[in-house]
Amino acid sequence: MPQGWTLDTSPFHEGEMRIQDRTGVRERAEMQGLRVIRDHLPDQHREFYENLPFLLLGSVDKEGRPWASLVAGPTGFIQSPDAARIHLNTTALPGDPLNETLQTDTHLGVLGIEPSTRRRNRFNGKASQVLDGTFDIVVDQSFGNCPKFIQTRDVTYVAPSGSASKPTVRNISLSDSDVLRTIITADTFFIASAYSDGSSSAAMGADVSHRGGKPGFVRIADKNSILFPDFVGNNHFNTLGNIEMNPQAGLLFIDFEKNGLIYMTGKAEIIWDGPDLDRFEGAKRLMKVTPTKITATQNTLPLRFEFGDYSPFLSKTGSW
Fold it and tell me: Which of 126, 148, 147 is nearest to 137 (CA)?
């Protein structure tokens, strides 16, 4: 099967190109994209996904708001029947927006991450064959990611049992104590974004990405918004490119203490300079997100995480 991008059009859309131009990497990013972005899953990626106990998904609700979601299952709940798709035997977790957004032809951003090895791969595609307890995702674009800023954690799937605490789902505000605790102590979160101009271009759709840093790298900027740094990445600028065209984002924080998740969606802004940027050592830009909806869940996550080490790349960033 051919490697690299085989279509006549660029693997990047207008927003991604704008950010690449602004940061002076447009030509280099295009050459890299043509080499590493594919319209299928390489065999090693297919095997990687099949061995994961969880997967991150990005989607958009009927109001056009991006959300980041997590699905989980015992090893083998993800299968790759062929290089064009994966098949998932699972359902959305209680309270997860994916319960509403997942339909046939839904655009999905996909992130597979193995924290214990810092390995991660991504692809964007569309939902297919959505049934009760199973669905497929058909690949539009596929590529690997570097291990930067990933903290190691051993992850174990825990099958739900009758003795487990009852799940709770709450719509809350940014001032809620659980939200504040989870955000200000976070060393990891996930961000979803999306853009489509209505065309059938494979560069369009939803995306979900990992963000990592030392605890304190996510700040409560004011009563209504949060602030976090954007470090050097792969120069694709999938997230920033989407936000350039559609200034919205969905964030997902894992509440390790209460086995839950905090989902938020809202307005997103890229901050290119100013005094706030100067306070984040190593940051190239800042992102500001003003949530319009926040949902917090407890006892919904069938995974247990055991912290290992911080990423060695964090030695080049500040301590906040």
Answer: 126
Q: Is residue 286 assigned to a domain?
A: yes
Cβ neighbors of 259 (< 8 A, separation 6 or more) are 298, 299, 300, 301, 303, 304
Alpha carbon separation from 83 to 5, 40, 46, 49, 272 (Å, rounded)? 15, 5, 7, 12, 39
Q: What does each of the 320 residues of the chain score in pLDDT, given as a tens digit? A: 667 898 888 999 999 999 999 999 999 999 999 999 999 999 999 999 999 999 999 999 999 999 999 999 999 999 999 999 999 999 999 999 999 999 999 999 999 999 999 999 999 999 999 999 999 999 999 999 889 999 999 999 998 776 677 889 999 999 999 999 999 999 999 999 999 988 878 888 999 999 999 999 999 988 899 999 999 888 899 999 999 999 999 999 999 888 899 999 999 999 999 988 888 888 899 999 999 999 999 999 999 999 999 999 998 887 76
**Does residue 315 lie in a domain region?**
no
Give the predicted TM-score (pTM) of the model: 0.96
Distances (CA, A) of 282 to 62, 64, 92, 286: 37, 33, 36, 11
Find the domain containing 219 and state its range. 14-308
Give domain status of residue 319, yes or no: no
